[in-house]
Amino acid sequence: DARVTQTPRDKVTEMGQEVTMRCQPILGHNTVFWYRQTMMQGLELLAYFRNRAPLDDSGMPKDRFSAEMPDATLATLKIQPSEPRDSAVYFCASGLKGGTEAFFGQGTRLTVV
Amino acid sequence: LAKTTQPISMDSYEGQEVNITCSHNNIATNDYITWYQQFPSQGPRFIIQGYKTKVTNEVASLFIPADRKSSTLSLPRVSLSDTAVYYCLVGFRYRTGRRALTFGSGTRLQVQP
């Protein structure tokens, strides 16, 4: 059963620490998305990649967030330094066509204290 | 600024048909409309996608009028397990040319026995 795998599932960290979230997209999918979900803002697109190239990362605070795809089986989202306002659930999703049909992972729940 | 609009919540009873409408006045010519379902503590799950007129699959139908400025997700004969948040997703092309994938605020559907 193909699925998007995200690690860790939960992360609690102190303000100022670096946080790295990882995502393994479904094998063969060429589009990867990072979303953030909070009660206040809902689902926000942070970045998306097609064929490992970043197409849009305008939703990310550039001074502290970075997203990469070192290879086709791994996408990473890094926050450095983390702040309490970064507390949210971060979802990775992958897809094949058009960009709007995607399969989501279970998410990483990040708490910054 | 382009955005989507959905009702915040809806109530229904088991066995009824539920129709959830999303408005998206600034949808781009070549963008698809996609609907997702989300249960608590899970990532959104793809339900259906369409471009125009009507699309039907084993779980839902999607109605899109000719002007494509809105869409309606139709769930036939809902059950308790359909209680979830439903999101419509469209791509918007802003005046700057940047393309974004924007989720609506979601409609919380509560199905009663």
The main β sheet of chain A shows up as: 7 strands, mixed
User: What is the residue-averaged pLDDT of chain B?
Assistant: 89
C-alpha end-to-end distance of chain B: 40 Å
- Work out the count of structural domains of chain A: 1
| Overall 3D shape of chain A | globular
Question: Which key terms come to mind for this protein?
Answer:
heterodimer; A: 113 residues; mainly beta; seven-stranded mixed beta sheet; 11 strands; B: 113 residues; six-stranded mixed beta sheet; four-stranded antiparallel beta sheet; 10 strands; 0% helix
Quick recap of the structure?
The complex is a heterodimer of chains A (113) and B (113). Chain A is 0% helix and 56% strand. Chain A is globular and about 35 Å long.
Overview of the structural elements:
The complex is a heterodimer of chains A (113) and B (113). Chain A is an all-beta fold and 113 residues long. In chain A, 0% of the residues lie in helices and 56% in strands. In chain B, the strands form two sheets. In chain B, strands 1, 3, 4, 8, 9 and 10 form a six-stranded mixed beta sheet that branches. Chain B has one domain (9-112): Immunoglobulin-like, CATH 2.60.40. Chain B has 113 residues and is mainly β. Chain B is 0% helix and 51% strand. Chain B is globular. Chain B is built from no helices and ten strands. Chains A and B meet through strand 5 and strand 10 of A and strand 4, strand 8 and strand 9 of B.
Protein topology:
The complex is a heterodimer of chains A (113) and B (113).
Chain A: E1 5-7, E2 10-13, E3 19-24, E4 31-38, E5 42-50, E6 53-56, E7 65-71, E8 74-79, E9 88-95, E10 102-104, E11 108-112
Parallel strand pairs in A: 2-11
Antiparallel strand pairs in A: 1-3, 3-8, 4-5, 4-9, 5-6, 7-8, 9-10, 9-11
Chain B: E1 9-13, E2 18-23, E3 33-38, E4 45-50, E5 53-56, E6 61-64, E7 70-75, E8 84-93, E9 99-103, E10 107-112
Parallel strand pairs in B: 1-10
Antiparallel strand pairs in B: 2-7, 3-4, 3-8, 5-6, 6-7, 8-9, 8-10
